[in-house]
Amino acid sequence: MLQASNSRETRDGAREIKFKVEPDLAKAILEWSRSRLAADPYGGGDSGDQYLTTSLYFDTDDFAVYHRRGSYRRSKLRVRRYGSAEVVFLERKLRTSSLLSKRRTIVPIEELAWLASDAIPHGWSGRWFDDRLATRRLKPVCQVSYHRYARVGSGVFGPMRLTFDEQIAAQPCAGFEFAPAAGVPALENHVIVEMKYCVEPPAVLRHVVEEFKLEPEGVSKYRLSLDALNAARANTGGDHGALQRSSGTQAGAGNA
Known about the structure:
The protein has a single domain, classed as VTC, catalytic tunnel domain (mRNA Triphosphatase Cet1, Chain A). The chain has about 260 residues and is of the alpha+beta class. Strands 1, 2, 3, 4, 5, 6, 7, 8, 9, 10 and 11 form an 11-stranded antiparallel sheet that branches. Helix content is about 20%, strand content about 40%. The radius of gyration is 18 Å and the shape is globular. The protein is built from 6 helices and 11 strands.
């Protein structure tokens, strides 16, 4: 069995800013950034900065994460896979106005089945994730896949990252397993550009905003995906009903 690795990270002053831009503009920003920022060390493709990301998202029976109710607004759990890798990442992300905390454990993909089992092996490194799912009453809801370009660099306050997410597609899921990347398009005519940095934007990121006249916009791939599935009248999760039944209204616009 592969020895799983664990990591915890807490960053004061961590910041993330998102922009929803049209494909031609995103392409121009990407080309601009390629001469100023390094390629993601784990990327591929001709420019060494692209990869496929697929995530399983979880929610409660009444979609508390989607509706951002109480503490569900700040915390999110997901299982993430890069490309066709034989390992996956069990992740918890907790955010406040001034703090970003992440916990991540790498496990072989075949061990995902243990999350649906009542007999998890003693000492399994992913048990904390199973415990959190149970405590928060979270179940698999949907799979979200997208194509990402990523450029990286560093500033006065630490590392920075500029990403471009496109071809976002969603499909329902009811278990702890990945399906081929496909599904309902969640954002067909736009690309999500995101900047990650600490304390304040480095000069190169400020230049991007000024040069291309970008306006920040709250956007969540998870919420966009549920909106798309709801519009397609696709149920989400095993015993989840349609999303609009949880609120009595049509799904929202995918903000935050």
